Every structure is written in C-alpha cells, then in structure tokens.
Amino acid sequence: MPSEYQFPFTLRHLAYFREVARQLHFRRAAETLAVAQPALSRAIAQLEQALGVRLFARTRREVALTPAGAALLRQLDPVLRSLASLSDEARAAAAGERGLVRIGFTGLAMATVLPAILREFHRRHPGIRLELNESPTSAQLSDLAAGDLGCGFFHPDATTPGLATHLLLRERNGVLLPAEHALARRRELRLRDLAATPFVLFPRVHNPGFYDRTLAAFAQAGVTPRIAEEVWPRANAVGLVRAGLGVTFMCPSEARTLPDEVTFRPLSGPAPESRLVVGWKQSESLDPALAAFVALATETPRRNGLSARSLPPAAARPR
Amino acid sequence: MPSEYQFPFTLRHLAYFREVARQLHFRRAAETLAVAQPALSRAIAQLEQALGVRLFARTRREVALTPAGAALLRQLDPVLRSLASLSDEARAAAAGERGLVRIGFTGLAMATVLPAILREFHRRHPGIRLELNESPTSAQLSDLAAGDLGCGFFHPDATTPGLATHLLLRERNGVLLPAEHALARRRELRLRDLAATPFVLFPRVHNPGFYDRTLAAFAQAGVTPRIAEEVWPRANAVGLVRAGLGVTFMCPSEARTLPDEVTFRPLSGPAPESRLVVGWKQSESLDPALAAFVALATETPRRNGLSARSLPPAAARPR
DNA sequence: TTTCTGTGATGCCCTCGGAGTATCAGTTCC
DNA sequence: GGAACTGATACTCCGAGGGCATCACAGAAA
C-alpha cells in the first residue's frame, strides 16, 4: 500500500513546464507566468534533474520538446485538470451538492411515502447518491446509532435517546383477507368478528411497537387472536393470505395494488395503528447531504397524498 | 482554453492532508511524515483556508473528516497516483519504451517485409504505438523531409540528401497475366514475348525509379510496351489483369496469394527490378521510439524470408 | 567580417514561507 | 485535582525561490 507520496517536484514546476512547453520560448513563457526568465530557467532545470530526464532540447536559438517532454506534456493536462477540480469537489461536498446518504426503510415506507421523496430529492440534488437498504426497525435503530445509516424510515417504539424523529404517517390498519373468505362480503369489519380467524403476523422483535399496539387493540376488543404464521418482511404476508393461510393487518395506503385473490376491508372500532417516522442521529453538525435529505423528508408531507389532519405537528427538525 | 493553472495549495499540503485523513491523528501523522506536529497543523489549516472548506472536525480529543474532507480524500488518491506516474512515463518515453512512430509504406512493403517487422516490434516494444499510412514514394519523401513521417518503406529513386536508407528487398519482377492468356501455359516468359500484350502500369510520378527501370528493361529486350492503363495503388492492377485488360509486373513475393483467374510467371532475361528500402531523416538525436523501430527494421532481414545473397550490406544504421 | 539583437544560463543578494522548539489550552481518565 | 494526551499558537531560524545584472552564444544585418 502506498502510504506515502513523495514528489521530487512541485506544482509550480509542472505549471512552469507546461507554459514553456506550450510556447517553446522561455522569455515569453516567463512573461505569461509573471516571473523573471532566470527563475523559469532554474525551475525547468530543477524539474529535469528531479525527473532525471531532459525535457527540452535547447539550442542557443531554439527550444524543442524532447520525447520525454512531449510525453510529460501530453499526460500533464488531465492531471492538472483533476487537481484543479479537487477544490470544487470538496466545496460541493461541503455545500451538500455531492455526497452519499445511506437510508434504511421498511416495506411500509417504500409502499407509501418513500418513492415520492426519492424522486423529489434526486430532482433537487442530482449530485447526491442514495444507498437504500430495506431492514426492520430494530436493525435500523442500531445502524443509526452506529453511524452506518444516515437516516431511516421505520416504525417507532419508545423514543430512542440521541435520535431525532419526524412522524410521516399514522394510519389505522384494516384487514386483508382471502377474497373467498366469508367476511370478505362485508364492507367493514370489527376486530371481534375475527376471533375465530387465524392471523398472519410477524416476529415481535422487528417492530415491537406495532406488535404491541395490535395485541392491545385485540384486548380492547375482548378477543384473543389466533396467530397462525409469523412472516417477514411483511409484504410476504400478502402471499400467505392469498394462499388462504389466514388474514393479516394492512394500512389502507398499502392496499392500493393487490392481487384479485385477496380483499382489503377497513376496521371500525379498535384497530392497530401503523406509525412511520423518519429518524436520524441527533448531531450539531449534520452531513450536508444528509441534512438536505432530512430537510426534504420532513417537509410538510401533503404531497405524499396524506390528509393533513392525520398528522401531528413535526416532532423535530434538523438544524 | 485554460492557459494557466494556479493552485492555492501545494503537493505538500495534499500529501499532509492524506496522511492525517488516513490516521485521523495529527501527532502520529506528523511522525509518519517526519515533520513536527505544529507544521502539520499549520499546513492543514492553510489547505482548509485555501479551499475555503473545513476538512477536519476537530474536538480537543478527536479528529474526524468532514464531508468535504471525505470527498477530498476519496478523489485524492487517483490524482496523486497519476501524478506520481508522470515521472515514470517521461522516463519511459526517454528510454524509448513509450512513444509514437509514424510510418509510411507502399503496397509492396505491406505484401512483403512489413508485417513481420510490425509483429516483432510490437512484441519487443508494447508501449510504442505505430501509426501506419499507405502512401506513394514521392509523398513519403516529402513527408519525411517535413518531419510528418518518422520513417518510410518506399522505392528509392536517387538518394535524397539528409535521408538515411537501408535496402530491404531487391527482386526481379515477373509477369501477372490472365489465366486464360495464351502465354499463361508457359512456365517462364521473356519480355519480348510480351510485345503485343497491353500492359497495366502506374503513373510514373509515384515511383519513377521502378518505372524507368521497367522501360529500360523493355528497351534492353528490344521491345516497346503497349501501356493500356495506369492505375494506383498498384494492388489494383490485379483487378484489371483479372478483368482481362492486360498484364502487369509483380514481385514473386507479392504473387503468393492470388485469385484463380490470374497467373504469375517469372521472367528470364531482362526484367524490371523492384527495390524496397526503409528510410528516415538523418539526425544526431533520433526520437528513442523511432530509433528502436529503425534498429529493428534494419536488422539482418533473413527472417523476412529473403535469401541473404540477394541483399547488399546495410547502407546505413541509426545511431 | 563586424556589429547588433535576441536567446537561455549563471552569479549574487534578498525576502518570505515552512520548519522546529517551547508552550498553551482544553479534554479525559484515574 | 492531577496526569496524560490532544491540537493550536508564538517565536526564531534557515533555505528555497525570486529579481537584477550579466554572460555566452547564435543568427541576422550591415
């Protein structure tokens, strides 16, 4: 591994060489470079000695490039150009015009608010790349704490210290059931109607908040649910319902595009509630690219197709 | 056009930054770089001021990269690498391991000696690119004089001053005639047999030496040729012969792969002679890449499939 | 041939910036 | 509260880079 770069020349030498090579005339090049001619002669001599190669064939009357000089000149411009762009790139990164934001999300986020946010963000900040990872709430929380994730779209449990969150979505769930299910003919269901029906749920660890609210809703309705299967990610629950293994809960937002063999019905009375937040690590100096993303994600979310009344005031704002 | 590159930083700044960014520790980085820690602190501060961007987030106890610093670090290595390769490339060019040789050639050269030379040269000097242009002798001579051509494979006329040449090929021509031609049944022909047959030749200007030797051979045989067509490049003469428009001269070397409709027959007695030389501009300091090519082209040419006795001693050698 | 003009190289001196030493100011751990 | 460690600052020194004057040489002009 090249741990050290030691250069036998300086950028000054290279810039001087370039000008002499372009003009093939020391005096004029010196004038262009705004230095005296002797300084230029010395600088070129130093560069030649540093490289161990003669760069110019000088007669008393003419200056010509040697093959080595020609090779150097040919290769020099791209290098100088990318060197010059270094500062611009660094400034762009500082201004949040470049960068990478690592984003975690759950299936509900991708089914609801996330696509619109991504599209808009890419429009506003084309220089910032996004890295998207679907992962459960629990994993996102630890990744956020470890700094492996810039921000996450997840389902909040208790508030985690050091984490700022902003509520994006709060929806009463409905029920997804096989189309041929007896209850599918009703327009609306109640939890207690489902006492005898096996449920498809998910491992509590992945989203304990929603899991617990679900069981609380059952308790409130005076029913003990029959949990037939646990599956993850939740999107796979649709397949199990379709196969007739049971019914499951689902947000109305998620229920827009469904196969024919399943039916979505809203719940009246007690119902589990899904909450989606965007969360990021509290910090006084947020990465500019991340700050830009969070700013967009926490904007007034009317354009996400949610009715304004379903949303509480913002919990926190970056910066 | 960016005529001037002015850098607000030096390579020293960049190398220092890189080391601090890698170690995230000023004191240890200073030790690695073999400077005192204050010098490093100042250099980084200067770089930050020059770029107008904070590169490190320093607490009294910890150093971290800012987004700008991360961006700079990410982009820096490739630039430093190509910068470091500059000297190697220049040295390689001086040593003749890099470069470009512009080569002119005629059809005869490509049909005989050139392919083997090109193959061997590419094997020995993979870093040197070759630019190949087919052009007549006259054009090559002026291009060589003007420096637009490094060396040429052509048919010598009078020796041109300032040009070094080396004879590669000297062959008595035979005759190429349509397969159904009456004379095609003979194993060998004489020029005077061809008195009544129309000839396909070429404009004298393109190769006056061979043209004149051809007419001289006719005169020696006591025949005045009937010139039916003039065509250039000479390879196209095969097509005309094939079409039955006449016969033409050809080297045995060229006559190895021919269509069925034409027949090659050697000449006994007087016959025009083709000469092929490689020539280059006489100079005390030849471009290393060109020198390498000329050295190969003027090597003992046995491997070109020519009998040694048909070749005079080398006329000149580079260097 | 001689003179003149223009080329890049060299000698001398000065200045400015980078480096080292010593030290400071703040943080963390015991 | 002290010890140990961090990066930043003050001060001095020195050498690299620059300018000015000049040299050595090659063509052009007379």
Describe the protein's architecture and organization.
Chain A is built from ten helices and 14 strands. The first copy, chain A, is of the alpha/beta class and about 325 residues long. The first copy, chain A, folds into three domains: about 10-95, Orthogonal Bundle (Arc Repressor Mutant, subunit A), CATH 1.10.10.10; about 100-170 and about 275-310, D-Maltodextrin-Binding Protein, domain 2 (3-Layer(aba) Sandwich), CATH 3.40.190; about 175-270, D-Maltodextrin-Binding Protein, domain 2 (3-Layer(aba) Sandwich). In chain A, helix 1 crosses helix 3 (about 35-50), helix 1 crosses helix 4 (about 65-95) and helix 2 (about 25-35) crosses helix 3. The longest helix of chain A has 28 residues, at about 65-95. Chain A is rod-shaped. The model of chain A is unreliable at about 300-319 (pLDDT under 50). The interface between A and B is large, with 57 and 57 residues. The structure holds a DNA duplex (30 and 30 nucleotides).
Query: What assembly state would you assign to the polypeptide chains in this entry?
Result: homodimer
Biggest interface, residues from each chain: A-B, 57 and 57 residues
CATH-level-4 superfamily name of the largest domain in chain A: Periplasmic binding protein-like II
Number of helices of chain A: 10
What is the total domain count of chain A? 3
Instruction: Decide which structural class fits the backbone of chain A.
Output: alpha/beta
